[in-house]
Design goal:
heterodimer; A: mainly beta; 6-stranded mixed beta sheet; 59% strand; globular; B: mainly beta
Chain lengths: 114, 114
């Protein structure tokens, strides 16, 4: 059974700091991994999607890496801003078979202080 | 482009009542999903659909039913609501079952059963 763990559960940083959020998964047979952002009381916004054949994806100040063999992904946020404050979720989709669901981690609550 | 639209945004039900959570997408995605998110937990798949007329159970289907009469709509029905169904419900869709182009989520329905 796939399990996804996100560390840390919460992170508080001053504005301008570069930071890394971690995601690990127990089954390396994944099809892709997706990072989402969730604002309080809101839905999920997709940030980055990494296919299993890719090593990283970048969007603006965000960079996500994937090491499938070790079951790890990181989300790097450069020059953090108060507007980055949110919960960040990673989710993996297992490859093969009829397993169509995403397995989510519990998220990292990020607070960027002005 | 509205994406995935969920209604209502909030609802309070009494134990034993029934209701339908609505979900509509305008991206012509064949694949649609219902997830629930409990506090401090990752999202769990309730039901999914691979196309009009085809649905299947996810991880936590008990107490719920779905239908998919059109590509656009994927309503979730709660029969005999119980306090354990208090949660935030998210509808999602994807272009492919593998989510090659990622998943799009609605903004959620916050349900409280009292």
């Amino acid at each position: 059974k796939q399990e996804v763990t996100q560390i840390p559960a919460a992170l508080s940083v001053p504005e301008g700091e570069n930071l890394v959020l971690n995601c690990s998964f127990t089954d390396s047979a994944i099809y892709n991994l997706q990072w989402f952002r969730q604002d309080p009381g809101k839905g999920l916004t997709s940030l980055l999607l990494i296919q299993s054949s890719q090593r990283e994806q970048t969007s603006g100040r965000l960079n996500a890496s994937l090491d499938k063999s070790s079951g790890r992904s990181t989300l790097y946020i450069a020059a953090s801003q108060p507007g980055d404050s949110a919960t960040y979720l990673c989710a993996v989709r297992k490859s093969g078979g009829s397993n169509y669901k995403l397995t989510f981690g519990k998220g990292t609550l990020l607070t960027v202080n002005p | 482009n509205a994406g995935v639209t969920q209604t209502p945004k909030f609802r309070i039900l009494k134990i034993g009542q029934s209701m339908t959570l609505q979900c509509t997408q305008d991206m012509n995605h064949n694949y649609m999903y219902w997830y629930r998110q409990d506090p401090g937990m990752g999202l769990k798949l309730i039901y999914y659909s691979v196309g009009a007329g085809i649905t299947d159970k996810g991880e936590v289907p008990n107490g719920y039913n779905v239908s998919r009469s059109t590509t656009e709509d994927f309503p979730l029905r709660l029969e005999l609501a119980a306090p354990s169904q208090t949660s935030v419900y998210f509808c999602a869709s994807s272009y492919s079952l593998a989510g090659v182009l990622g998943y799009t989520f609605g903004s959620g329905t916050r349900l409280t059963v009292v």
